[in-house]
Amino acid sequence: MNQPKSEPDMESLRQRAGVLMEALPYLRQFRGHTIVVKYGGAAMLDVGLRTEVLKDIVLLEHVGLRPVLVHGGGPDISETMRRLGKEPEFVNGQRVTDAETVEIAQMVLTGKTNPDLVAAIHQQGANAIGLSGKDGAMVVARKRSGAADLGYVGEVAEVNPGLVQGLISQGFIPVIAPIAAGPGGETLNVNADHFAGRIAGPLQANKLIVLTDVGGVLGNPEDPDSLISELAAGNAREMIADGRIASGMVPKVEACLDALAAGVGQCHIIDGRLPHALLMELLTDVGIGTMVVAE
Amino acid sequence: MNQPKSEPDMESLRQRAGVLMEALPYLRQFRGHTIVVKYGGAAMLDVGLRTEVLKDIVLLEHVGLRPVLVHGGGPDISETMRRLGKEPEFVNGQRVTDAETVEIAQMVLTGKTNPDLVAAIHQQGANAIGLSGKDGAMVVARKRSGAADLGYVGEVAEVNPGLVQGLISQGFIPVIAPIAAGPGGETLNVNADHFAGRIAGPLQANKLIVLTDVGGVLGNPEDPDSLISELAAGNAREMIADGRIASGMVPKVEACLDALAAGVGQCHIIDGRLPHALLMELLTDVGIGTMVVAE
Amino acid sequence: MNQPKSEPDMESLRQRAGVLMEALPYLRQFRGHTIVVKYGGAAMLDVGLRTEVLKDIVLLEHVGLRPVLVHGGGPDISETMRRLGKEPEFVNGQRVTDAETVEIAQMVLTGKTNPDLVAAIHQQGANAIGLSGKDGAMVVARKRSGAADLGYVGEVAEVNPGLVQGLISQGFIPVIAPIAAGPGGETLNVNADHFAGRIAGPLQANKLIVLTDVGGVLGNPEDPDSLISELAAGNAREMIADGRIASGMVPKVEACLDALAAGVGQCHIIDGRLPHALLMELLTDVGIGTMVVAE
Amino acid sequence: MNQPKSEPDMESLRQRAGVLMEALPYLRQFRGHTIVVKYGGAAMLDVGLRTEVLKDIVLLEHVGLRPVLVHGGGPDISETMRRLGKEPEFVNGQRVTDAETVEIAQMVLTGKTNPDLVAAIHQQGANAIGLSGKDGAMVVARKRSGAADLGYVGEVAEVNPGLVQGLISQGFIPVIAPIAAGPGGETLNVNADHFAGRIAGPLQANKLIVLTDVGGVLGNPEDPDSLISELAAGNAREMIADGRIASGMVPKVEACLDALAAGVGQCHIIDGRLPHALLMELLTDVGIGTMVVAE
Amino acid sequence: MNQPKSEPDMESLRQRAGVLMEALPYLRQFRGHTIVVKYGGAAMLDVGLRTEVLKDIVLLEHVGLRPVLVHGGGPDISETMRRLGKEPEFVNGQRVTDAETVEIAQMVLTGKTNPDLVAAIHQQGANAIGLSGKDGAMVVARKRSGAADLGYVGEVAEVNPGLVQGLISQGFIPVIAPIAAGPGGETLNVNADHFAGRIAGPLQANKLIVLTDVGGVLGNPEDPDSLISELAAGNAREMIADGRIASGMVPKVEACLDALAAGVGQCHIIDGRLPHALLMELLTDVGIGTMVVAE
Amino acid sequence: MNQPKSEPDMESLRQRAGVLMEALPYLRQFRGHTIVVKYGGAAMLDVGLRTEVLKDIVLLEHVGLRPVLVHGGGPDISETMRRLGKEPEFVNGQRVTDAETVEIAQMVLTGKTNPDLVAAIHQQGANAIGLSGKDGAMVVARKRSGAADLGYVGEVAEVNPGLVQGLISQGFIPVIAPIAAGPGGETLNVNADHFAGRIAGPLQANKLIVLTDVGGVLGNPEDPDSLISELAAGNAREMIADGRIASGMVPKVEACLDALAAGVGQCHIIDGRLPHALLMELLTDVGIGTMVVAE
Question: What's the gap between Cα A7 and its chain centre?
Fold first, then answer.
């Protein structure tokens, strides 16, 4: 850092210091805290946003937080399926996942999305490690039960947090694909929101942050100005039941509810399209998106 | 282990004990030793052999050795390429690897072969973790230089052994796909034999075992009875230079030479088609294949 | 281990591997487990058997178990007494132990049997340490109360397991003579079976194995084919009460009952005259002798 | 941190994030580094500046640096002397320090300035501990030799860094008064600049920062625009010799030279009157004051 | 210790050995125990006695005890106040402490008495560290409530024992001035007896010893022969209530009562004027002063 | 220690404190030091002296030293031989040791003398453990070569200090019988003085103390007043060569010479018949016996 530096000017000094000082209470509060980030949507797919988000993640690790990423990978899976001559099929918005599909999903998530993210984080100067639920049997899944049989779609049955906790205490940023083995060793694809919501508790995370492509939970899905800043768990459950929270937002809110129930103190759904949304949420007084809170 | 057990008979007792006692000096010698195994060929592709090899690996871990697996994945890559409408191309037996091909290779190796092996080892009762060279920047590669430009084919430039050493000391069996990032973050495909030979030294491994589909290094490739039990490094280099060691055996012998030069004491090329070849090589007086030795 | 090895042959390979593979679930189960072995009878007195038993003990230590030996020494004590001009005397099969006799017993057990075993284990390549109950006050005894006053015969009053646990965690095999000090520092001779049965619990042993010179507990002492493979604690107590279990077998069964009551999961009385009885019991599916089990 | 937060606005988000992102490479570089700060002048005496400097110190500790403060206390000493009826006396700008004066200096430095700083740091939310060279014999001094006999003025003879290193590894910010005992236990007053320069090396500090009341080292003391941004050690020694560096700036530059010679990589003299000078120097691209560098 | 030694003589040998042997059970009992010593009165003010007491303290540390000193400093404060032109004022024997007075008290206690003791202990060969309640916020105080408003006089509100416990486990002797910060950071002066009595429990001290200038608690203050060797807590409270325990003895007895209530097993008030009173109390059968005991 | 204590008296206080204070510099010097004591002669055989010596040993352990005892056992061996009908035989004062004799020596030393000492130390309140050179192969011996073949008489060939160092760091007092195994596992009897002298270096002992039954090394063996207080190694060698040091004193002086050569700083031969000779030597200014010193 011995390069010539720019000349100071008084007003700029005060402004810069102000930002750093504002971060102080948050840094104090979050030091050493594990933060599970569900990473997906525009923040992952848009090349420019993705670089900014990964820079944020690396900054957070450098100031003493311990981020854990769980990523999805939707469009890539469908695209690879089509290239392999297989038409994606959905029932009620959920992918029908036969044996061949789950193999493709695993191949794309753990063989493409995941190593690309790991390499990109290294480019930003931190140490990442790619994992799936299979590694160290970190997550054991079972077939998801429900109305429709969706095939090899799983839900989290058991979490063994030791491997991930060991890696974060050594300074690695775990990047996790939501794939896990079932009891017989078969591969299962787990919804990434649910996966993140379920591991946050066993990892003793202090925060769950779900990145999404809208401003947060809206009171009226038609009205982007109807953002709900703070949403009580009971209200959230009602809004899911009566359909006010619908489609892709459902698993995100469910992830928050799962994590809250498992003792994770703070659960946020924030707008991943905003520049540096993570940094703003964690280190400034700026409020972004919806915080789901216990009653 | 309280189930009814079979009746003993004197002769059988002596024979069984004999096998266990024969293993004693090897167990004593190898306790806590790191053993890098290059895993591929029939021992990986044949379902029956594969189960036996993984059982051996797990037994070795249970009696105190520390196996590290590096696997290839050749046929799967070509098959997936063809399904994606891309014809594999080879120059002098080496795959021409354009940007799309290396993406497919990574996808198959880290997204299919690797997690399948990890799950299969868990089924046998040990704890495995899937890695590639990108994880924790364990291996940093550079484009392989040579006569023909083969594209995104890499060679090992730097090894950071801390991650793997930490994991084996915690009882995990690392299963490693020979994929790594280059200096600019680009994905490179590394020959699995070379990858294994290059990491053995930095991992402070005591042994490198390369599984192959022939009996070992043959004095006369036409004559399966011309097996060379012990091959001095100098002779090995001559035999590569004059073509007596050729095609697929070349990188296997080079891996042994690399590992020897980096201080790995014992380097073997053994016949992975033999039942329990690893167990025999490590825990009995039975000699299998070729041992490459320093002069 | 670089010596020329023998040629493999397919059938032999499968058989050898079979024995090693059969050992796998036992190795997995017993890794790091403490196994208290009451060592005596033919297995200690017969020179050939003794070497085989000690080889077994060393093998067990090398594959990760933690054996603790408690030995007796009967015939040697009587012989030394006679050489010193003192006639051994017994009441109901128990040695009358006056002050001079207990000195001789201590001298023989800790000054002859014990160091000979320690040296013999070192010859087999493991690290042993000779102890008696006096060392580190590991066992504090009191005079055994009962019908006849047998003199300086003790029973275990208190166990301080720290010394032995420290030594086994450092890789030593403790070899313990059943001698202890009473509350006033006087020397007391404790029955070796009882001694072993009483220390197994405080040492947090997972198994107690009592070697004896018959096949195990017999339903009919006259009929060697009446071996009871599994004996419930309640039945064992009845058989002692009604005399079906008699003389030297009584303290062996009592040792198992004591250890079971103190939380030792598996207690076996096995035939020390069988070659490699310990190895068979611990590492194969072969059933030997009698397992005493909680109801 | 659940309080209502302000509304975001795009431009402000980018600016705030920019400041935090600019800090990233510095945070990465300095994490876990020990920074010795010589604290004095306006930055200590002006109430407003003092609060800002201590906030900076606490922020630095919270983001992973390890600050160590060495403070002076000049005007307070003179004032207390006068109140006690003793007129301060100076020879060539250095305080004549008789036995009574050194007692007063110690009383003011360790009994007033030091505990006030410790309490003020606690008010900002970090953990401080007040020390002098006497504590744990951290600094042993000897009488300073020189032209004039200045009495109980010391120079650092020996540094025992263990106490301070232990405290910083436990998260305390050491605040050190430049008082030490001589070989016979007598109290000696050490120049605070020299004290800081001498302990930085043994503490294995990575940086020494001397706060002063001018912009840095000036090429022409009459011209505030003649600031020298980077000053080679050899030039520094020449400028001291020929008087271009004079009076109060001499010990500051000498402190940097001492620390450089003892292996401290980066030594800065910066303007403590600038708001958040420490933060700017450490965490932004803004250049402040003079860096003294090895040739 | 290779210097010529004196000639032995039989009788002297037996006597010397007797003293050392008498110390044995006490050394065994107190090894590793924390002993809080309230240090003041003649034992601190008389130069000869002071050296002897500090030698005792150092001897105790060398034989494995862990002494913690809390010191007062009364006469010095008044003297410095007068030199600064301020007349000390007392109400009911307690110093009226305005803002200026508490500054002077802190300056004298932490800037004069404390560092002098630290340096004197180093001269005796042990490692001391000077502290006040402000360091590491070890003691947080609040204004003492009561009949008369005495100004900046505090009482212990909260004790954070980690800093002191860490230092004693590293072999330092903490020397503590009874100054602490209040909730707003203001300086408060705490009675040294009370300070010692209140920290003994949180420090998990095994003994509190209060040095005083009389023989102990007297049944009749007029009669020095009316010493009470053992005083039950209930009786002590009665004697304070009815005035038989009065003036300076009150806080000393209260300190013992506080410490007893917080689990400190042994609390003594002893005559600091006796040569080596501490050594006698701790390491011999000689009884000195008053032991306050729980009912 | 709450029992009523005796009344103090001023003069007695000063004298007692004087003894304790005199011990201070020695306690400081020897804290944590390993002291090998060759224990034998009257100090072991006389019941009253033995109790006093063991009390000294326990006191030393309690004040922080780490004593290691090596004991002989001469008369007992001869007596037991005679009782077993075997006449002891000596050549040049050294016992002729056939196979039967060495068995008896081992039996007496490790089976009688050793456990009796261990139990006696426990009676004094410390934790002892009995060992011989066979335990943990702590000492490996070889047959002593020399003019006469003395049979199974050994000399120290190799020392493995780990076991003993581990035990003393856990607070045990090792009590060692000078018996060891030879390369083939055969039992060898080693002179106890030589055994002590040879292990002191590898144990990193700071002192070797040999107890004997005379005042020390005498200039004239006929004249008890000709004690040599300090004897240079060169002179010692000369005196052995010319016979001025003769018979039983020879191995004692050789032990000191061996230990000196192996880096043990202080080697003493002292009169074990003096009451508390060890305590006097270690903790007072009284000089006892002969110190052998390097030139």
Answer: 40
Cβ atoms of E129 and E61 within 8 Å: the answer is: no
Phi/psi of residue E203, each to 5°?
-75, 0
Question: Which of E4, E10, E20 lies closest to F287 in CB terms?
Answer: E4
CA distance C292 to C256: 7
> Quick check: F290 and F216 in contact, CB under 8 A?
yes
Q: Output the six-digit token pair for E107.
A: 């300056």
Residue closest to C106 by CA, chosen among C97, C119, C116, C96: C97
From D194, D250, D193, select the one nearest D39 (Cα to Cα).
D193
CA dihedral B162, B168, B173, B178 (to 10 degrees): 20
**Residues E19-64 pLDDT 10s:** 888 887 788 788 899 999 999 988 898 888 999 899 999 989 988 8
Give the whole-angstrom CA distance, residue B254 versus residue B236.
9
- Residue D145 has what DSSP assignment? P
d(CA C115, CA F131): 10
Nearest to E36 by CA among E276, E291, E267: E267
CA of C109: which chain F residue's CA is closest?
A: F111
Total CB pairs under 8 A between chain C and F: 99
What is the H or E stretch that residue E145 is in?
none
Ramachandran bin of C243, using left for φ above 0, alpha for ψ from -120 to 50, beta for the remaining angles: left
- Which residue from B25, B18, F187 is spatially nearest to C52, judged by alpha carbons? B18
- Tens digits of per-residue pLDDT, F107-144? 999 999 999 999 999 999 899 999 999 999 999 999 98
Q: How many CB pairs under 8 A join E and F?
A: 142
> Do E276 and F21 make contact, defined as CB atoms within 8 angstroms?
yes
Across-strand partners of B234?
none
- Contact between F232 and F293 under an 8 Å Cβ cutoff? The reply is yes
Q: What is the pLDDT of residue E8?
A: 56
Q: What ipTM did this prediction achieve?
A: 0.90
What is this structure's pTM?
0.80
Mean pLDDT of chain B: 90
- Chain D CB contacts of A52 under 8 Å are 17
DSSP state of B208: E
DSSP secondary structure code for residue D7 in this structure: P
* Closest CB to E286 among F5, F31, F55: F5
Ordered alpha helix ranges (H), A63-113: 74-83, 99-108
Query: Sign of the CA dihedral E222, E224, E228, E233?
Result: positive
Angstrom distance (rounded) from CA E56 to CA E279: 6
User: Nearest Cβ partner of E14 from F23, F55, F275?
Assistant: F275
* Least confident segment among C25-39, D106-120, F150-164: C25-39
d(CA B194, CA B256): 9
Rounded to the nearest angstrom, the minimum Cα separation between E66 and chain F is 13
Q: What is the CA radius of gyration of chain F?
A: 20
Number of H-type helices and E-type strands within chain E: 11, 14
Strands (E), E13-60: 34-39
How many whole angstroms separate alpha carbon B85 and alpha carbon A80?
A: 12
Interchain pair E6, F285: CB under 8 A: yes
H helices, E strands: number in chain F: 11, 14
DSSP state of B159: E
Contact status, residue A36 vs residue A206, Cβ threshold 8 Å:
no
**Single-letter amino acid code for the residue at E30:** F
Please report the domains of chain F, with CATH numbers, ordered by start residue.
Answer: 32-293 (3.40.1160.10)
Task: Record the tokens describing residue B190, joined without a space.
Answer: 């590394």
For residue E72, give the nearest of E194, E204, E166, E244 by alpha carbon: E194
Write out chain E residues lying below 8 Å of F59, CB-based. 20-21, 23-24, 27
- What is the rounded distance in angstroms from the CA atom of residue B207 to the CA atom of residue B36? 6
Token digits for F151?
């049979």
